[in-house]
Amino acid sequence: MMLNNCERTPVIGNRIECLGYIGTIKYIGQVSDYAGIWIGVDWDDPTRGKHNGTIKGVCYFEASFPTSGSFVRPEKVNLGQTAVTALTSRYGRHDDDVTAKLHEQQLQSVQQCINAPFLKLVGFDKITDKQSDFWNLKVVNLRLQSVYTSGDPGSIRALCPNIIELDISKNLIKSWLTIFDICSQLDNLEWLNVSENILEFPPDLDDYCYGSVRVLICNAMKLTWNNVLQLGKIFPNLEELRVPNNNITTLDTPEDHKLVHLKLLDLENNLIQNWEEILKLKFLKNLEQMILENIKLNKIYFEDQEKIIDFSHLKKLVLTNNLINDWESVGELNKLQKLEDLKFINNPILDKESFVISTELIIARLENLKVLNGTTLQSDERRGAEYRYLKKYGLEYLSLKDYDQRKEFLKKHNRYDDLITKHGMPEESEMKTTSKIIKGTLTELQIIFNERIIRKKLPPSMLVQKLGTLVQKLFQLTDRPTLIYTSNTKSNIEINLNDDCKELGFYSMQDGDRILVQM
Questions:
Q1: Global model pTM greater than 0.85
Q2: Which domains does the chain have, with CATH numbers?
C-alpha cells in the first residue's frame, strides 16, 4: 500500500514499507557509481536485502544481517500515515469523517463568536451521526496499515475514545512513546497487540502507566526479559502477557516485580533452554497458564519434595516441541499441585514408546491431570492407564532388594507406591503376559450376549470399531451394540469401550477376559 509521502521527509531511523516489506532507514545520500539520492534500508526480513550495507568496499551503513541491507529510491518507499487517518479510511468514508471534524470545529468557533450555542450548519446532523459510529467502535484492527504516529494531540480520543481492543501490529511505529500516546487517549483500552513493531524504549519510563490494559501481545519485537519487566511497570494490571519469538534467554524476576496480576505467560519460541530459568518465575504468584512451547527445554526438575509451594496456581502448561528425553521429567510435573491441563507433543521421550503407551505413561505419572493434549480424560481411561502402568513395571518393582534400589525406582516412577495403594499390586502372571500382548499375540476373549458366550482369539491391533462390527455379525444384531470390557482376574476393572479408534491392546486384555454386549 503506497501512501502519499509528501507530508514527511525521510530521516535516518524512520520505519518504512516497500512492496510489503518493512525496514529501518539507515542511510540517505549518494551511492558511488549510481546517480541520484538513495535510501539505505535494513530490512526486518534478513533475506529481503542483497548485502550488509557495504558495496564495493564502501560501508554506507551496518545491517543487522549479511543480506538484510539494500538501497531503494526515495519515491519507492512508503513513509506511512497517522493512526487517525488509518482509522477513518478503514472504518468510515475518509472525506466525510475528516470533514465532520473540521465542520464541528468551525461550528464551535462560529457559536462562540456570535454567542449562538444552538446554531446548526446545514447537513451537520448527518455528519454528527457519522461521528457517533466512530464513538461506538470497541474493537479496532489497524494491522499492516503503515501507521507511524498517533496523529495530532488528542485526535484519537476525539474520534473514537471508546476502543476496548486494539491491534496495531506490524506497522511503522519506531518508539514505545507512540504506543504510550495512543494508550493515554483510550481510557477503556483492555486488549493491546503491538506485535512485529521494533520499538525503542524511552530513557525514563516513570511517567507512563496504563492500568486499564489487561492483555498485552508483543510477538517478534526483539524484547529481552528486562524489557518485559519494564512493561510490567507501565501496564501494572496485566493478566495475560504474550511475548513469543523474542530475544528472551534468561528470566531473572525480582520479588518486587509489577506483574502481580499475571495469569497467563506465553514464552513460545524464545531460546530459554534451561529449567533453572523457568524456576525464576516463582514470584509470579498468580500464574495459572504458562506456554513454554519450543524453548529447547531438555529437562524438568523441582526441589526434592513431594509437592512444591511455588507455582501454586498453575493449572495449564504447554511443553510441546521441546527436547525432553526422560520420563523422570514428566513425573516431576506431578509436584505442581494444581496442574490439570498439559500439552506435551513432539518431545524425544515420546518416540521411545508407541503413542498409546506414551499417553498412558503420562496419565499414570500425573495424579491431577484432567486434559492431555486438548483431550479430556475419562475416569475409566485413567483407571486403565494406571493399572497397565503397574503391570508394565511390576516385575521390576518386585525384584528390588534394598532401600537404595527402591529409592532409585521411585525416583523414576514417582507414583508407583500410590498406585499400588489405589489399585493393589497386579498378580505376577498378569505382569508376565503384558509383554506378550504388546508383541502382538492373539488374545482369547469371551464375548457374552444374553447368556450366550462365544470365544474368539483376537489380535491386540484390532480397533474397537472392528470389534463392534464383528459382534454385530456374531449375534446377528441390527443395531450397533454397547461393549463393556471386564477383567477375568480383577473384578474392579470394567471399562466402557466407547472409543472406536482405540486398539484392543490399549486395554491390555488377557486370555479369559470378557466383552459384555448390551443393546
A1: no
A2: 15-76 (2.30.30.190), 81-299+308-322 (3.80.10.10), 300-307+323-426 (no CATH), 439-518 (3.10.20.90)
